[in-house]
Amino acid sequence: ITMDKYTAKLIARDIGVPTADFIVMHYNMIEDYNTDEDLMGFLSNLGLPVVVKPNDGGSSVGVSIVKQVDELKPAVELAFRESNVVLVEKYIAGAEFAVTVLEGKALPVVEIKPVEGWYDYTNKYTEGKTVYVAPAEIDPALSRLLQVYATRLWQAFDLKGYARVDFLYDGDQAWFLEANTLPGMTSLSLTPMAAKTVGIDFAKLLEIIINNA
């Protein structure tokens, strides 16, 4: 379910977890919306800026933030190179957070702070490009809200073992981005960072994951 971002967002809405407004595009629609003007007409309810992404992609591959009309068509074409279904979301500016849920329990929140730009592929996988704060130094009420949302989504998606749920916070409201049921396990990955904050080292984390497989 979670690999289908569109379906995941529908479920989030259904259980009362806020998520940015969105529209889905299928590849067979591209001939009907082949100019910037056509696309803007189709996306008129969202306006600009928007985030254009493959509906079933990962690691921010094929994702673009579109702020100008002339950026829209190239962004849609890029996303369609990765998937036959493209999700277009209203852009929300704010801080990004990740909550790992391990065996049904939310671990401490991790804040993601790219040094420059947004949390794209380069910033995710290049050491020094992003600062991670674990646990996040945020209002305890916000931290708890993110954990509640993550746990609620975990249950709604009927997940097992472990997963990571990503959010944006615009200063007023937390927004569900997506859930990752196979989050990274490298030295720059968020799940090991979150586990470490509660005394679970990498070896123990792997043991827990294997035992839940």
**What fraction, in percent, of the residue positions are helical?**
25-40%
Oligomeric state of shown chains: single chain
**Termini separation (Å)?**
18 Å
Counting DSSP E segments of at least 2 residues, the number of strands comes to: 10
What is the count of DSSP helices, taking H or I runs of 4+ residues? 7
User: How would you describe the shape?
Assistant: globular
Structural class: alpha+beta
Can you give the mean pLDDT? 89
The figure for the number of domains is 2
Low-confidence stretches: none
Order of helices and strands: HEHEEHEEEEHEHEEHH
CATH superfamily of the largest domain: ATP-grasp fold, B domain
Report the C-alpha radius of gyration, rounded: 17 Å
Strand content: 15-25%
Molecular structure report:
- The protein has 213 residues and is an alpha+beta fold.
- The protein folds into 2 domains: 21-90, 2-Layer Sandwich (Dna Ligase, domain 1), CATH 3.30.1490; 95-212, D-amino Acid Aminotransferase, Chain A, domain 1 (2-Layer Sandwich).
- Helices cover 31% and strands 25% of the residues.
- The chain contains 7 helices and 10 strands.
- The longest helix is centred in the last third of the chain and has 17 residues, at 140-156.
- The mean pLDDT is 89.
What features would you highlight for this structure?
213 residues, 2 domains, 10 strands, 7 helices, Dna Ligase, domain 1, single chain, six-stranded antiparallel β-sheet, D-amino Acid Aminotransferase, Chain A, domain 1, alpha+beta
